[in-house]
Specification:
Length: 141
């Protein structure tokens, strides 16, 4: 009986540790077509919502000169470094979600967005209607 209680307590501890991991922090974005690291995005909280801004560009020369050319408002013609590419996600269980909340500066498109953690991987999903694409961003120490 004592063993059952100990095993049960351990299982609940493991479940508690794996749930509710924070998405806040610095994440390396990976181009899922080439496998190359593209940028570092800092995910942060503001007013109880999640935002994410590009703090470093890894894949292009002269990153400080790059802008979100031809992007829709409010991202239009803003410098990529410091750009909030994720805006206003709200908590939904163990995930964060909002409509029209993430922009792909390379594609110049805005998507509905959902974020969740799987260990040291941040899963970032962009939606347009029923179609979606999921990227894996890697935790930066």
């Amino acid at each position: 009986m004592k063993r059952i209680l100990i095993i049960t307590a351990l299982l609940f501890s493991i479940v508690a540790l794996t749930q509710g991991q924070s998405v806040v922090g610095k994440w390396k974005t990976i181009d899922h077509e080439t496998g190359e690291a593209k940028s570092i995005v800092e995910i942060y909280m503001k007013g109880g919502k999640v935002y994410g801004k590009i703090i470093q560009i890894l894949s292009k020369p002269n990153p400080e000169t790059l802008k979100c050319d031809d992007c829709p408002e409010p991202w239009a013609d803003k410098p990529l470094i410091g750009l909030d590419i994720i805006r206003g996600l709200e908590k939904d269980g163990d995930e964060w979600y909002a409509d029209e909340a993430i922009i792909s500066p390379s594609r110049k498109k805005v998507y509905d967005c959902k974020l969740w953690r799987e260990g040291d991987i941040l899963m970032v999903r962009g939606y347009i209607g029923w179609f979606y694409d999921t990227q894996e961003w890697h935790k930066v120490d």
